[in-house]
Amino acid sequence: MSTELLAPLDLAFWHLESTEHPMHLGALAFFEGTSAADGDRVAGLLAGRAAAIPRLRMRVRAVLLPVGGAAWFAAKDFDVRRHVRQIRLPGGDFAAHATGIAGELMEQPLERGLPPWEMYVLTAADSGMFAVLVKLHHALADGMRAVAIGAGIFDQIAGAGAAGARRERSVPPRSWLPGPHQVVGFARDRIEELSRAVGIGASVMRASRFDLRGASAFAAGSSGTRRLATAVLGLDDVRGIRRVSGGTANDVLLAVVAGGLRRWMLERGEPLPGADPRALVPVSRRRPGSAAASGNRLSAYLLGLPVSEPDPWARLTAVRRAMDRNKAEGPGRGAGAVAVLADHLPPLAHRFGAPIAGSAARMLFDVLVTSVPLPRSTLSLGGSPLRALYPMAPLARGQSLAVALTTYGGRVHVGLVADAKAVPDLDRLAESMTDETAALLRAATG
Protein backbone atom coordinates (compact mmCIF):
# COMPACT_ATOMS: atom_id res chain seq x y z
CA MET A 1 0.00 0.00 0.00
CA SER A 2 1.41 3.38 -0.97
CA THR A 3 0.60 6.79 0.40
CA GLU A 4 0.31 8.61 -2.92
CA LEU A 5 1.26 8.78 -6.55
CA LEU A 6 4.03 11.11 -7.62
CA ALA A 7 2.56 14.37 -8.83
CA PRO A 8 3.10 14.96 -12.57
CA LEU A 9 5.96 17.46 -12.16
CA ASP A 10 7.62 15.23 -9.54
CA LEU A 11 7.43 12.34 -12.00
CA ALA A 12 9.01 14.54 -14.68
CA PHE A 13 11.93 15.39 -12.38
CA TRP A 14 12.34 11.70 -11.50
CA HIS A 15 12.62 10.69 -15.15
CA LEU A 16 14.77 13.67 -16.16
CA GLU A 17 17.65 12.40 -14.06
CA SER A 18 20.72 10.76 -15.55
CA THR A 19 24.15 9.88 -14.18
CA GLU A 20 25.64 13.08 -15.61
CA HIS A 21 22.64 15.22 -14.61
CA PRO A 22 21.42 14.33 -11.11
CA MET A 23 18.18 16.11 -10.25
CA HIS A 24 18.70 16.95 -6.59
CA LEU A 25 18.54 20.27 -4.83
CA GLY A 26 21.19 21.13 -2.27
CA ALA A 27 22.01 23.48 0.57
CA LEU A 28 25.29 24.07 2.35
CA ALA A 29 24.71 25.47 5.84
CA PHE A 30 27.44 26.79 8.16
CA PHE A 31 26.93 26.75 11.92
CA GLU A 32 28.96 28.36 14.66
CA GLY A 33 30.68 26.53 17.45
CA THR A 34 31.63 22.87 17.53
CA SER A 35 34.71 20.76 17.11
CA ALA A 36 35.49 17.70 15.03
CA ALA A 37 34.87 15.60 18.12
CA ASP A 38 31.30 16.95 18.25
CA GLY A 39 30.52 15.71 14.76
CA ASP A 40 29.07 12.46 16.07
CA ARG A 41 26.66 14.40 18.30
CA VAL A 42 25.47 16.59 15.42
CA ALA A 43 25.12 13.60 13.08
CA GLY A 44 23.11 11.75 15.71
CA LEU A 45 20.86 14.75 16.21
CA LEU A 46 20.29 15.09 12.48
CA ALA A 47 19.57 11.39 12.12
CA GLY A 48 17.01 11.40 14.91
CA ARG A 49 15.16 14.42 13.58
CA ALA A 50 15.24 13.30 9.95
CA ALA A 51 13.94 9.83 10.83
CA ALA A 52 10.92 11.44 12.49
CA ILE A 53 9.83 13.13 9.23
CA PRO A 54 7.51 10.69 7.39
CA ARG A 55 8.39 11.97 3.91
CA LEU A 56 12.07 11.19 4.47
CA ARG A 57 11.25 7.51 5.03
CA MET A 58 9.56 7.15 1.64
CA ARG A 59 11.03 5.78 -1.56
CA VAL A 60 9.82 5.78 -5.16
CA ARG A 61 8.59 2.65 -6.94
CA ALA A 62 6.94 2.14 -10.32
CA VAL A 63 3.26 1.17 -10.30
CA LEU A 64 1.11 -0.73 -12.78
CA LEU A 65 -1.61 1.92 -12.91
CA PRO A 66 -1.55 4.52 -14.23
CA VAL A 67 0.75 3.20 -16.92
CA GLY A 68 4.17 4.84 -16.57
CA GLY A 69 3.38 6.15 -13.10
CA ALA A 70 5.26 5.85 -9.82
CA ALA A 71 4.32 6.22 -6.19
CA TRP A 72 5.81 6.93 -2.79
CA PHE A 73 6.08 3.81 -0.63
CA ALA A 74 7.24 3.55 2.95
CA ALA A 75 10.71 1.97 2.96
CA LYS A 76 10.30 -0.99 5.29
CA ASP A 77 14.08 -1.43 5.61
CA PHE A 78 14.68 2.29 6.21
CA ASP A 79 17.99 2.93 8.01
CA VAL A 80 18.74 6.59 8.64
CA ARG A 81 22.45 5.78 8.99
CA ARG A 82 22.56 5.22 5.23
CA HIS A 83 21.50 8.84 4.72
CA VAL A 84 23.37 10.83 7.40
CA ARG A 85 27.16 10.71 7.24
CA GLN A 86 30.08 12.60 8.74
CA ILE A 87 33.20 13.81 6.93
CA ARG A 88 36.24 15.28 8.66
CA LEU A 89 38.04 17.91 6.63
CA PRO A 90 41.70 18.95 6.82
CA GLY A 91 42.74 22.02 8.78
CA GLY A 92 43.09 25.43 7.21
CA ASP A 93 40.35 27.42 5.47
CA PHE A 94 37.29 25.50 6.63
CA ALA A 95 34.79 27.33 4.41
CA ALA A 96 36.90 26.71 1.31
CA HIS A 97 37.35 23.01 2.12
CA ALA A 98 33.64 22.58 2.88
CA THR A 99 32.62 24.33 -0.34
CA GLY A 100 35.01 22.18 -2.36
CA ILE A 101 33.80 18.87 -0.93
CA ALA A 102 30.18 20.00 -1.30
CA GLY A 103 30.71 20.45 -5.04
CA GLU A 104 32.14 16.94 -5.31
CA LEU A 105 29.27 15.45 -3.29
CA MET A 106 26.72 17.24 -5.47
CA GLU A 107 28.11 15.34 -8.48
CA GLN A 108 26.91 12.03 -7.10
CA PRO A 109 23.31 10.99 -7.86
CA LEU A 110 21.17 9.80 -4.97
CA GLU A 111 20.61 6.05 -4.79
CA ARG A 112 17.23 5.51 -6.40
CA GLY A 113 16.33 2.39 -4.43
CA LEU A 114 16.42 4.39 -1.17
CA PRO A 115 14.50 7.43 0.06
CA PRO A 116 16.07 10.12 -2.17
CA TRP A 117 17.95 12.36 0.26
CA GLU A 118 21.31 12.60 2.05
CA MET A 119 22.90 14.80 4.71
CA TYR A 120 26.59 15.24 5.45
CA VAL A 121 28.08 16.73 8.61
CA LEU A 122 31.40 18.44 7.74
CA THR A 123 33.83 19.14 10.58
CA ALA A 124 37.49 20.05 11.05
CA ALA A 125 39.74 20.38 14.06
CA ASP A 126 39.86 23.87 15.61
CA SER A 127 37.60 25.36 12.92
CA GLY A 128 35.14 26.97 15.33
CA MET A 129 32.27 25.93 13.06
CA PHE A 130 30.74 22.98 11.27
CA ALA A 131 28.72 22.64 8.07
CA VAL A 132 25.83 20.49 6.94
CA LEU A 133 25.29 19.61 3.28
CA VAL A 134 21.72 18.57 2.43
CA LYS A 135 20.73 16.84 -0.82
CA LEU A 136 17.03 16.38 -1.66
CA HIS A 137 15.80 14.95 -4.94
CA HIS A 138 13.68 17.45 -6.86
CA ALA A 139 10.92 14.82 -7.00
CA LEU A 140 10.86 14.96 -3.20
CA ALA A 141 10.85 18.72 -2.77
CA ASP A 142 10.75 22.10 -4.44
CA GLY A 143 12.23 25.07 -2.62
CA MET A 144 9.17 25.71 -0.45
CA ARG A 145 8.79 22.08 0.53
CA ALA A 146 12.52 21.85 1.29
CA VAL A 147 11.99 24.66 3.81
CA ALA A 148 9.05 22.73 5.28
CA ILE A 149 11.27 19.66 5.68
CA GLY A 150 13.84 21.90 7.33
CA ALA A 151 11.17 22.77 9.89
CA GLY A 152 11.70 19.31 11.33
CA ILE A 153 15.48 19.70 11.45
CA PHE A 154 16.29 23.16 12.87
CA ASP A 155 15.82 23.92 16.57
CA GLN A 156 13.88 27.15 16.40
CA ILE A 157 11.42 26.22 13.67
CA ALA A 158 10.56 22.95 15.33
CA GLY A 159 10.36 24.50 18.80
CA ALA A 160 12.60 21.82 20.26
CA GLY A 161 15.40 22.23 22.77
CA ALA A 162 19.00 22.09 21.67
CA ALA A 163 19.22 18.38 22.31
CA GLY A 164 15.54 17.65 21.74
CA ALA A 165 14.75 14.40 19.93
CA ARG A 166 11.75 13.90 17.65
CA ARG A 167 9.32 11.12 18.27
CA GLU A 168 9.09 9.03 15.12
CA ARG A 169 5.71 9.37 13.44
CA SER A 170 4.17 6.62 11.41
CA VAL A 171 3.43 7.02 7.72
CA PRO A 172 -0.35 6.80 7.24
CA PRO A 173 -1.20 4.45 4.36
CA ARG A 174 -3.62 5.70 1.73
CA SER A 175 -4.58 4.03 -1.49
CA TRP A 176 -3.92 5.84 -4.75
CA LEU A 177 -6.38 3.65 -6.73
CA PRO A 178 -9.61 5.47 -7.74
CA GLY A 179 -12.97 4.10 -6.67
CA PRO A 180 -15.70 3.32 -9.25
CA HIS A 181 -17.44 6.66 -8.63
CA GLN A 182 -14.19 8.49 -9.46
CA VAL A 183 -13.56 6.92 -12.86
CA VAL A 184 -15.92 9.16 -14.87
CA GLY A 185 -14.61 12.31 -13.21
CA PHE A 186 -11.04 11.12 -13.76
CA ALA A 187 -11.63 10.65 -17.50
CA ARG A 188 -13.30 14.07 -17.80
CA ASP A 189 -10.39 15.73 -15.99
CA ARG A 190 -7.86 14.06 -18.32
CA ILE A 191 -9.68 15.37 -21.41
CA GLU A 192 -9.75 18.89 -19.98
CA GLU A 193 -6.07 18.67 -19.03
CA LEU A 194 -5.06 17.54 -22.52
CA SER A 195 -6.95 20.49 -23.97
CA ARG A 196 -5.09 22.89 -21.69
CA ALA A 197 -1.81 21.13 -22.48
CA VAL A 198 -2.24 21.89 -26.19
CA GLY A 199 -2.51 25.61 -25.47
CA ILE A 200 0.40 25.66 -23.03
CA GLY A 201 2.52 23.54 -25.37
CA ALA A 202 1.93 26.01 -28.19
CA SER A 203 3.06 28.82 -25.89
CA VAL A 204 6.24 26.92 -25.00
CA MET A 205 7.00 26.23 -28.66
CA ARG A 206 6.56 29.90 -29.57
CA ALA A 207 9.10 30.82 -26.89
CA SER A 208 11.62 28.18 -27.95
CA ARG A 209 14.79 29.00 -29.91
CA PHE A 210 16.07 26.89 -32.74
CA ASP A 211 19.24 28.89 -33.34
CA LEU A 212 21.44 28.28 -30.27
CA ARG A 213 24.41 30.36 -31.33
CA GLY A 214 25.60 33.00 -28.91
CA ALA A 215 25.04 31.07 -25.67
CA SER A 216 28.46 29.38 -25.46
CA ALA A 217 29.32 30.83 -22.04
CA PHE A 218 26.45 28.90 -20.50
CA ALA A 219 26.48 25.73 -22.59
CA ALA A 220 28.66 22.67 -22.25
CA GLY A 221 28.74 19.01 -22.98
CA SER A 222 28.29 17.42 -19.60
CA SER A 223 31.41 16.21 -17.81
CA GLY A 224 29.40 14.91 -14.85
CA THR A 225 31.49 17.11 -12.53
CA ARG A 226 30.32 19.92 -10.27
CA ARG A 227 31.91 22.99 -8.75
CA LEU A 228 30.34 25.22 -6.10
CA ALA A 229 31.09 28.87 -5.37
CA THR A 230 29.40 31.27 -2.97
CA ALA A 231 28.86 35.00 -2.58
CA VAL A 232 27.33 37.15 0.16
CA LEU A 233 25.52 40.40 -0.64
CA GLY A 234 24.32 42.97 1.86
CA LEU A 235 20.53 42.95 2.16
CA ASP A 236 20.55 46.62 3.19
CA ASP A 237 22.44 47.40 -0.04
CA VAL A 238 19.85 45.52 -2.11
CA ARG A 239 16.99 47.29 -0.36
CA GLY A 240 18.68 50.67 -0.77
CA ILE A 241 18.99 50.09 -4.52
CA ARG A 242 15.35 48.98 -4.72
CA ARG A 243 14.10 52.10 -2.92
CA VAL A 244 15.63 54.24 -5.66
CA SER A 245 14.89 52.03 -8.66
CA GLY A 246 11.41 50.81 -7.75
CA GLY A 247 10.31 47.27 -8.49
CA THR A 248 11.27 44.47 -6.15
CA ALA A 249 14.37 43.23 -4.36
CA ASN A 250 14.26 40.23 -6.69
CA ASP A 251 14.53 42.58 -9.68
CA VAL A 252 17.71 43.98 -8.13
CA LEU A 253 19.15 40.51 -7.61
CA LEU A 254 18.37 39.49 -11.19
CA ALA A 255 20.17 42.63 -12.37
CA VAL A 256 23.12 41.69 -10.15
CA VAL A 257 23.23 38.29 -11.84
CA ALA A 258 23.10 39.92 -15.29
CA GLY A 259 25.87 42.40 -14.46
CA GLY A 260 27.96 39.73 -12.77
CA LEU A 261 27.75 37.56 -15.89
CA ARG A 262 28.76 40.48 -18.10
CA ARG A 263 31.80 41.29 -15.94
CA TRP A 264 32.79 37.62 -15.79
CA MET A 265 32.54 37.09 -19.56
CA LEU A 266 34.53 40.22 -20.35
CA GLU A 267 37.24 39.32 -17.84
CA ARG A 268 37.68 35.82 -19.25
CA GLY A 269 37.94 37.31 -22.77
CA GLU A 270 34.70 35.80 -24.02
CA PRO A 271 32.72 37.85 -26.55
CA LEU A 272 29.33 39.00 -25.36
CA PRO A 273 26.52 37.03 -27.03
CA GLY A 274 24.64 38.63 -29.88
CA ALA A 275 21.34 37.91 -28.13
CA ASP A 276 20.86 38.31 -24.40
CA PRO A 277 21.03 34.98 -22.57
CA ARG A 278 17.77 33.70 -21.17
CA ALA A 279 17.20 33.06 -17.49
CA LEU A 280 14.46 30.77 -16.27
CA VAL A 281 13.15 32.25 -13.01
CA PRO A 282 11.00 29.72 -11.10
CA VAL A 283 7.77 30.90 -9.49
CA SER A 284 6.01 28.97 -6.74
CA ARG A 285 2.37 28.12 -7.42
CA ARG A 286 1.76 27.02 -3.84
CA ARG A 287 -1.03 28.69 -1.96
CA PRO A 288 -0.14 30.39 1.35
CA GLY A 289 0.13 27.85 4.14
CA SER A 290 0.47 24.87 1.77
CA ALA A 291 4.27 24.44 1.92
CA ALA A 292 3.91 21.05 3.61
CA ALA A 293 1.68 19.73 0.82
CA SER A 294 3.32 17.12 -1.38
CA GLY A 295 4.24 17.65 -5.00
CA ASN A 296 6.24 20.32 -6.79
CA ARG A 297 4.09 23.36 -7.54
CA LEU A 298 6.16 25.45 -9.92
CA SER A 299 6.02 27.58 -13.00
CA ALA A 300 8.57 30.13 -14.15
CA TYR A 301 9.17 33.43 -15.88
CA LEU A 302 11.48 33.79 -18.85
CA LEU A 303 13.87 36.74 -18.67
CA GLY A 304 16.47 38.04 -21.09
CA LEU A 305 19.51 39.02 -19.01
CA PRO A 306 20.77 42.32 -20.51
CA VAL A 307 24.49 41.45 -20.50
CA SER A 308 25.07 43.51 -23.66
CA GLU A 309 24.05 46.72 -21.85
CA PRO A 310 27.19 48.45 -20.45
CA ASP A 311 25.44 50.66 -17.88
CA PRO A 312 24.51 48.95 -14.54
CA TRP A 313 21.48 51.17 -13.91
CA ALA A 314 20.17 50.64 -17.44
CA ARG A 315 20.54 46.88 -16.88
CA LEU A 316 18.43 47.12 -13.72
CA THR A 317 15.80 49.20 -15.52
CA ALA A 318 15.61 46.64 -18.34
CA VAL A 319 15.24 43.77 -15.86
CA ARG A 320 12.51 45.55 -13.88
CA ARG A 321 10.48 46.34 -17.01
CA ALA A 322 10.83 42.77 -18.33
CA MET A 323 9.72 41.30 -15.00
CA ASP A 324 6.77 43.70 -14.87
CA ARG A 325 5.69 42.39 -18.29
CA ASN A 326 6.14 38.80 -17.14
CA LYS A 327 3.98 39.35 -14.08
CA ALA A 328 1.30 41.09 -16.11
CA GLU A 329 1.10 38.12 -18.50
CA GLY A 330 1.33 35.51 -15.74
CA PRO A 331 3.54 32.41 -15.39
CA GLY A 332 1.41 30.23 -17.68
CA ARG A 333 2.99 31.59 -20.87
CA GLY A 334 6.34 31.22 -22.59
CA ALA A 335 9.11 28.74 -21.93
CA GLY A 336 8.53 28.92 -18.18
CA ALA A 337 5.19 27.23 -18.68
CA VAL A 338 6.96 23.95 -19.42
CA ALA A 339 6.57 23.16 -15.69
CA VAL A 340 2.83 23.86 -15.92
CA LEU A 341 2.66 21.70 -19.04
CA ALA A 342 4.03 18.78 -17.03
CA ASP A 343 0.93 18.86 -14.82
CA HIS A 344 -1.29 18.14 -17.84
CA LEU A 345 0.60 15.21 -19.38
CA PRO A 346 -0.03 11.52 -18.62
CA PRO A 347 2.64 9.55 -16.70
CA LEU A 348 3.70 7.57 -19.77
CA ALA A 349 4.56 10.82 -21.56
CA HIS A 350 6.92 11.72 -18.72
CA ARG A 351 8.60 8.33 -18.76
CA PHE A 352 9.41 8.37 -22.47
CA GLY A 353 9.47 12.11 -23.10
CA ALA A 354 11.74 13.20 -20.24
CA PRO A 355 15.03 12.40 -22.05
CA ILE A 356 13.87 14.43 -25.06
CA ALA A 357 12.68 17.30 -22.89
CA GLY A 358 15.95 17.30 -20.97
CA SER A 359 17.95 17.54 -24.17
CA ALA A 360 15.79 20.46 -25.31
CA ALA A 361 16.46 22.62 -22.25
CA ARG A 362 18.90 24.84 -24.17
CA MET A 363 16.13 25.68 -26.62
CA LEU A 364 14.23 27.25 -23.75
CA PHE A 365 16.79 28.94 -21.49
CA ASP A 366 20.51 29.39 -20.80
CA VAL A 367 20.73 29.64 -17.02
CA LEU A 368 18.46 28.94 -14.06
CA VAL A 369 18.15 31.73 -11.48
CA THR A 370 16.05 30.75 -8.48
CA SER A 371 15.27 32.31 -5.10
CA VAL A 372 14.59 30.13 -2.04
CA PRO A 373 12.72 31.69 0.91
CA LEU A 374 13.89 31.12 4.49
CA PRO A 375 12.10 31.98 7.74
CA ARG A 376 13.01 35.35 9.18
CA SER A 377 13.66 33.91 12.64
CA THR A 378 17.15 33.02 13.84
CA LEU A 379 17.85 29.35 13.18
CA SER A 380 20.10 26.89 14.99
CA LEU A 381 20.95 23.19 15.11
CA GLY A 382 21.73 21.53 18.40
CA GLY A 383 22.11 24.97 19.97
CA SER A 384 24.65 26.11 17.34
CA PRO A 385 23.42 29.22 15.46
CA LEU A 386 23.17 29.17 11.69
CA ARG A 387 25.56 31.71 10.16
CA ALA A 388 25.14 31.14 6.43
CA LEU A 389 23.12 28.96 4.07
CA TYR A 390 23.90 28.61 0.36
CA PRO A 391 21.19 26.97 -1.80
CA MET A 392 22.17 24.89 -4.83
CA ALA A 393 20.11 24.09 -7.93
CA PRO A 394 20.57 21.21 -10.40
CA LEU A 395 22.04 21.76 -13.86
CA ALA A 396 19.89 21.19 -16.92
CA ARG A 397 21.33 19.01 -19.68
CA GLY A 398 23.71 20.93 -21.94
CA GLN A 399 24.02 23.83 -19.49
CA SER A 400 26.96 24.74 -17.32
CA LEU A 401 25.62 27.13 -14.68
CA ALA A 402 22.76 27.50 -12.18
CA VAL A 403 22.28 30.34 -9.67
CA ALA A 404 20.33 30.09 -6.41
CA LEU A 405 19.78 32.84 -3.83
CA THR A 406 18.32 33.04 -0.33
CA THR A 407 18.10 35.73 2.35
CA TYR A 408 19.06 35.10 5.96
CA GLY A 409 20.46 37.17 8.80
CA GLY A 410 20.43 40.45 6.89
CA ARG A 411 22.43 39.03 3.99
CA VAL A 412 21.71 37.49 0.60
CA HIS A 413 23.53 34.17 0.19
CA VAL A 414 24.28 33.13 -3.39
CA GLY A 415 25.04 29.55 -4.37
CA LEU A 416 26.58 29.00 -7.82
CA VAL A 417 26.68 25.48 -9.23
CA ALA A 418 28.61 24.82 -12.44
CA ASP A 419 30.05 22.03 -14.51
CA ALA A 420 33.55 21.93 -13.04
CA LYS A 421 35.33 21.42 -16.37
CA ALA A 422 33.29 23.98 -18.29
CA VAL A 423 33.56 26.71 -15.62
CA PRO A 424 36.89 26.39 -13.77
CA ASP A 425 36.77 30.10 -12.83
CA LEU A 426 33.47 30.01 -10.94
CA ASP A 427 34.94 31.87 -7.95
CA ARG A 428 35.54 34.86 -10.19
CA LEU A 429 31.87 34.90 -11.18
CA ALA A 430 30.95 35.02 -7.49
CA GLU A 431 33.27 38.00 -7.04
CA SER A 432 31.74 39.70 -10.09
CA MET A 433 28.30 39.58 -8.46
CA THR A 434 29.70 41.38 -5.42
CA ASP A 435 31.30 43.96 -7.72
CA GLU A 436 28.01 44.49 -9.55
CA THR A 437 26.11 45.09 -6.31
CA ALA A 438 28.65 47.77 -5.37
CA ALA A 439 28.26 49.39 -8.80
CA LEU A 440 24.46 49.50 -8.50
CA LEU A 441 24.72 50.96 -5.00
CA ARG A 442 27.02 53.71 -6.26
CA ALA A 443 24.57 54.49 -9.05
CA ALA A 444 21.68 54.60 -6.60
CA THR A 445 23.40 56.86 -4.06
CA GLY A 446 25.46 58.99 -6.43
Automatic annotation (TrEMBL):
<dbReference type="GO" id="GO:0004144">
    <property type="term" value="F:diacylglycerol O-acyltransferase activity"/>
</dbReference>
<comment type="pathway">
    <text>Lipid metabolism.</text>
</comment>
<keyword id="KW-0808">Transferase</keyword>
<dbReference type="GO" id="GO:0071731">
    <property type="term" value="P:response to nitric oxide"/>
</dbReference>
<dbReference type="GO" id="GO:0001666">
    <property type="term" value="P:response to hypoxia"/>
</dbReference>
<dbReference type="InterPro" id="IPR004255">
    <property type="entry name" value="O-acyltransferase_WSD1_N"/>
</dbReference>
<dbReference type="GO" id="GO:0019432">
    <property type="term" value="P:triglyceride biosynthetic process"/>
</dbReference>
<keyword id="KW-0444">Lipid biosynthesis</keyword>
<dbReference type="InterPro" id="IPR014292">
    <property type="entry name" value="Acyl_transf_WS/DGAT"/>
</dbReference>
<keyword id="KW-0319">Glycerol metabolism</keyword>
<feature type="domain" description="O-acyltransferase WSD1 C-terminal">
    <location>
        <begin position="295"/>
        <end position="436"/>
    </location>
</feature>
<dbReference type="GO" id="GO:0006071">
    <property type="term" value="P:glycerol metabolic process"/>
</dbReference>
<dbReference type="InterPro" id="IPR009721">
    <property type="entry name" value="O-acyltransferase_WSD1_C"/>
</dbReference>
<keyword id="KW-0443">Lipid metabolism</keyword>
<dbReference type="Pfam" id="PF06974">
    <property type="entry name" value="WS_DGAT_C"/>
</dbReference>
<dbReference type="Pfam" id="PF03007">
    <property type="entry name" value="WS_DGAT_cat"/>
</dbReference>
<dbReference type="GO" id="GO:0005886">
    <property type="term" value="C:plasma membrane"/>
</dbReference>
<feature type="domain" description="O-acyltransferase WSD1-like N-terminal">
    <location>
        <begin position="6"/>
        <end position="252"/>
    </location>
</feature>
<comment type="similarity">
    <text>Belongs to the long-chain O-acyltransferase family.</text>
</comment>
<keyword id="KW-0012">Acyltransferase</keyword>
<dbReference type="GO" id="GO:0051701">
    <property type="term" value="P:biological process involved in interaction with host"/>
</dbReference>
<protein>
    <recommendedName>
        <fullName>Diacylglycerol O-acyltransferase</fullName>
        <ecNumber>2.3.1.20</ecNumber>
    </recommendedName>
</protein>
<comment type="pathway">
    <text>Glycerolipid metabolism; triacylglycerol biosynthesis.</text>
</comment>
<dbReference type="InterPro" id="IPR045034">
    <property type="entry name" value="O-acyltransferase_WSD1-like"/>
</dbReference>
